[in-house]
Amino acid sequence: MAPPFNISKNPAAAKAAALQAAREKAASAPTAADGVLQKWSSPAEAKDRIRILFDDSGSMSSQIAAAKEGVTEFFRNCIPNQTAVAVHMLCMRSEKLEALNSNLIEAAAVLKDTPARLGNTPLFRTFREAASAEPIATRFVLFTDGEPDHEEPYNWQEPEQILCNKDADKLIARAKELSAPVDTVFYGPEQYHEDNIKLLKYIADGTGGYFLHFDPKKVNFRTAFKYLAPVNRFMLASESVRKEIESGARS
Fold it and tell me: How far is CA 219 from the centre of its chain?
């Protein structure tokens, strides 16, 4: 008995048949002969080599889960095998997490299983270590909810913000030496944090990166952090888009 219609002349039926064939193929275990086994490229070969500085200080304790989910979403918005990412927690050191990895599925699993140490905020020291790690990064992304620890000896004759900028100037000089922009995110309310926000914007502006302010009352870190990933970052060139992200209007 002939079929009621000709699949080749019925686009909807052809599409349904193709979907069914794909489901059946996916249900069977892949083999090397299928040519579908993923081969991850060497991190040194990746076009984008991104090192993320993750603030796991004590003040971030209630936001660690959201921050991890945000970074995982960042991974999902990276181009497979063109991007290698490492995560440098400010307090908890992990060689496996800090190694650039083009297998972002594995990187996300490592991040999920890495506990937070919840200490101080050694942002400048961590950046210096990340900037010396091989393969060298092409970009840095950092976020914090507070004031970084000072590395310069404290001088009571100098305003604190000027002192902190000495550390920032060293960071900027190193980033320029590597030709690696630094994107920065301040995660917290503006009230009482004006100087910290200025500092992170100063670092981003000085290195050719982008600055974003995530106020937890307006922005969901889980969905907003992805805009710093390579496939979305071009949108940040628009000031209106940055304002939409910071207001929570763009998810």
Answer: 16
Q: What angle do CA 24, 29, 34 make, to 5 degrees?
A: 85
Q: Which residues of 88-100 are buried (b: 16+ CB within 10 A; e: fewer)?
A: bbbbeebeebbbb
Any domain includes 144: yes
- Give the whole-angstrom CA distance, residue 170 versus residue 158: 18
Q: Residue 120 corresponds to which tokens in the numbers above?
A: 């101080």
pLDDT score of 150 more than 90: no
Whether 33 is covered by a domain: the verdict is no
Q: Which CATH number belongs to the domain containing residue 223 in this structure?
A: 3.40.50.410
| Tokens describing residue 189 | 């309310």
Nearest to 230 by CA among 69, 54, 78, 9: 78
Q: Retrieve residue 108's tokens.
A: 């996300």
Question: pLDDT per residue over 196-239, tens digit each?
Answer: 999 999 999 999 999 999 999 999 999 999 999 999 999 999 99
Q: Where are the alpha helices (DSSP H) in the chain?
A: 11-27, 64-76, 95-98, 104-113, 123-132, 160-178, 194-207, 221-224, 230-233, 239-247
Domain housing 182: 48-247
Please tell me what DSSP assigns to residue 181: -
**58 found inside a domain:** yes
> Which residues, in sequence order, are CB contacts of 2 under 8 Å at separation 6+?
none
Question: Do residues 225 and 76 touch, judged by C-beta distance below 8 A?
Answer: no
Count how many domains the chain has.
1
Average pLDDT over residues 25-33: 45
The CA distance from 119 to 121, in Å, is: 7
